[in-house]
Amino acid sequence: MAIMTSAFVDGARLMATALGAPGYRFAVIEHPIASSSDRELAHQAELAIEQADELVQPSTGRRPDRGPPTS
């Protein structure tokens, strides 16, 4: 599982293709994060977890450690 900031999505896709994994899916959070507050980082982390759950188990719609999706 990989997490990229929005500024590096194109590079990540290129690298995945170069390494033989075209179409590799990863979570994306907003860029930049260096100047983010702890609260903003916590929010970004939660968004990444939600995306990771969907990438790992796309067909179930469930989050095993948290129950059904909240959206």
Termini gap: 22 Å
Largest sheet: 2 strands, parallel
| Domain count | 1
Number of helical segments?
2
Helical amount: 40-55%
> Structural class given helices, strands, pairing?
mainly alpha
Strand tally, please? 2
What are the secondary-structure elements, in order, as H or E?
A: EHEH
Strand order of the largest sheet: 1-2
Low-confidence stretches: none
- Report Rg: 14 Å
Shape: flat
Oligomer: single chain
Strand percentage lies at 5-15%
Overall pLDDT metric: 86
Describe the structure.
By secondary structure, the chain is mainly alpha-helical. It has one domain (3-56). The protein has helices at 9-18, 38-56; strands at 3-5, 27-29. Strands 1-2 form a two-stranded parallel sheet. The model has no long low-confidence stretch (mean pLDDT 86).
Summary of the model, kept short:
With 71 residues, the chain is mainly alpha-helical. The protein is built from 2 helices and 2 strands; from the N terminus they run βαβα. β1, α1 and β2 (27-29) form a beta-alpha-beta unit.
